[in-house]
Here is the input.
Amino acid sequence: MSITAIETEALGLSADQRARLIDVLWDSLSGSELKAREAAWAAESERRIDAYEAGKLTARDAKDVFADLKKTHRK
Here is the structure.
């Protein structure tokens, strides 16, 4: 089964079922995989904070960001 097929199936689940699937998949990652992902996110967060503080990055209201995401990801 392809990732696209799995994604299509997963999106057909109820919100509770999707949340459960997220938990199962997250729990399936090993400790080293989680640490690597957390380290990458921490580094990216620091990079963005530094860029913002240096005036190289602007902030946006979360409501605007989420509205844009909803527009671009509607099916």
